[in-house]
Structures are given as structure tokens and as C-alpha cells.
Specification:
By secondary structure, the protein is an alpha/beta fold. The N and C termini lie far apart (62 Å). The strands form 2 sheets. It has a 5-stranded parallel β-sheet with strand order 1-2-3-7-6, with helices on both faces. The protein has a two-stranded antiparallel sheet with strand order 4-5. Helix 8 links the parallel strand 6 and strand 7. Helix 1 packs across helix 3 and helix 1 packs across helix 11. It has a single domain, classed as Thiamin diphosphate (ThDP)-binding fold, Pyr/PP domains (Rossmann fold, 3-Layer(aba) Sandwich). 41% of the residues lie in helices and 9% in strands. The chain has 11 helices and 7 strands. Bound molecules: thiamine diphosphate and magnesium ion (MG). Magnesium ion binds next to strand 4.
Amino acid sequence: MTLNRTAGSSAQLGEAALLEMYTTMLLSRRLDERAWALHRQGKIAFHISGMGHEAAQVGAAFALNRGVDYVHPYYRDLALVLAIGVTPMDFMFSLFGKKGELSSGARQMPSHFGAKHLNIISGSSPVATQVPQAAGLAFAIKYRQQSGLVDPNDATQPRLAFTCLGEGSTSQGEWHEGMNWAGVHKLPFICMVQNNLYAISVKMDSQMGVANVADRASAYGVHGVWVDGNDIFAVYDVMREAVDRAYNGGGATLVEAKTYRPVPHSSDDDDRSYRTREEVEEWKKKDPLIRMQTTLLNEGILTKDLINEYENRARADVDHAQQAAENAPYPEALDVLGAVYAPAEEV
Ligand SMILES: Cc1ncc(C[n+]2csc(CCOP(=O)(O)OP(=O)(O)O)c2C)c(N)n1
Ligand SMILES: [Mg+2]
């Protein structure tokens, strides 16, 4: 694999941004690995992994106005939300379901990421429901801009809505409805399908009769593009184009990032029942984290010493976050009623 970074927006990325992209992917991977270990130790009830998807997610995040543009993620988007500002501590608190958990006060399952202060919208478990919701956010953005309530060039305001889902989830009606709405209204909207070839055990060719999810874009009147989702620079480039389109009134984009999930669907799945070990091993050779590390080493941006330093830092961050979450109390039983029922005095 050779990267041509003389062309495309990623050629403009400075050293600091490149290293932040790398360390975000690394942190996500180490947190994710720890979550699997904690599950096998019986310390947490459930984990669903973003492993293998980190380049697609971090490449996408860096193209956005992070913390300002609306992001409606799905359960694999750990690296995406870390890039936007969710912390290892936030993630560990959600794994352990501890008091103060960021997304929902520990009501939701882990990896239902939400952070009001970062404009990350918490999703529901039924897959694809985030798509019409995100298209609705994009509609609100356009409406507010056209009504003169906000300046379309004001970078302190959300100027697009970005959402993600898997390729299998595009079989849901909600996906088609959201995409259609985005096309009809030319919305500032980007939908990224992280195509890892499987929906749990169901292969892609059982979900659709087209070779690429992106082929469906023209049916909705949106721009469609597929990209190697394990190549962070290629993802960044197509995302920059999609972001420019959204910011400049050019309408919505469907980005299909082709990738792979090298681990089972979740902590409750055994992938040996539906795919060969050879297939998994082949894909592990395309690991996006190693790929980025190699590129940055070749470019002289990373050194062996820096790699070790970042590795130690990531592991220390994970240890620290785990310890804090293990030591934290559970929510009070009555907290379950908060944010569901208004306090009596407000009724
Ligand atoms: C409406 C609905 N049906 C079924 C499920 C159970 N379910 C959770 S994830 C998943 C697979 C989704 O696969 P895909 O969209 O390809 O995403 P991936 O997990 O591969 O990233 C299924 C069937 C669900 N959460 N919601
Ligand atoms: Mg999938």
C-alpha cells in the first residue's frame, strides 16, 4: 500500500494534527482491548467494539468542526467520539454503569455515546433510527440559516449533521427515509456507512443487490462516494469534500467507508460460527492503526521513541480511567427517575 498524500486535503494536515489523529486511534484501540478483557474477567456486562474502524472514524472526525457540528454516532464509534472530546474516563464510567456517566446517567447500555456539551446526540438501540433524526437536525440547521436566525458562516454554530451506521442497517426503512429527506431538501448532512461486510453473522450480499452502498446515493439525489475505510487520509479527503459541500449549500453526501471488524460483533457473539479464521487473519494485515503508524514512521513524523511514549501514555490513561470507574459509586436507585419525570415542584 502506498499513500499519495501529495494530492487531496490530507496533504495539508500539519504534524500536530497527524500525531493527534494517531494518538486518538491508539487510545481508542487500547481502551477497546481493555473493555474486552474486563468483560472476560466478569467485571462488565457488555462490550461492543470499534476495533478496525478507527481510521474511518478519526479521518471523519478531523474533517468536521469538532464539538460544534452535530454528530449522531452508532455503537462502534468510540474513536469518533474520543476525537471529538469524550474522555477515557467517560467511556469507562459507561462500561461500569457508574454514577455521573456522561451519555445517560448510566441508563443506556455502554457505547450509546452522547455528550450534550459536544453536540453528540445519544442514539437508540434500534439500528438506523439515528439517520432520520440526524437528517432532522440538518433540516433544522438549514431552516435556522434560511430564516436568518443564524449566520450560515458562523463557525460557532452547527453547520451540518453527521451520522454513522453499518451496512447491514441500511436495510432498515429509517435509513431510506432519512436519506430521501436529505436529498429532497438538499440538507447539510453526511451519512457515513462503515461497511465491515457483516451484520452480526449476515453477509452484505444478503442485505443488498448492489456492490457498493454508495451506489444507492443517486436514487436519493445525494452525492455518493466509497472509500478505503482503513486509509485514514483517503477518508479525510472524501470527508473534507463532503463537509465543504454541506457548508456551501451543495447538499448531502453518502460516504461508504469499506472496512472490517476483526473481532466478534459484541461480547455476546462467537464469530467462528460464520467466518473463517483465515479471512480474519487476512484482514488483520490491513490494520488501520499499524498502517498509519507505518506511514508516519516513513514520513519521519513518528519515531520509535515517540511510539513508545504514546503507547505508555495510552496505557496509563486507560489504567487511570478504569481505576476511577471501578472506585466510583453506582447511581442512587432513585436517580433512575431523573430526566424522565419532572420534579414535583415543576409539574
Ligand atoms: C432494528 C434492529 N434490528 C436488529 C437489531 C440487532 N442488531 C444490533 S447490531 C446489528 C447488526 C448491524 O450490522 P451493521 O449495520 O452492518 O453494523 P455493524 O455492527 O456491522 O457495524 C443487529 C442486527 C437492532 N439493534 N435493531
Ligand atoms: Mg456491518
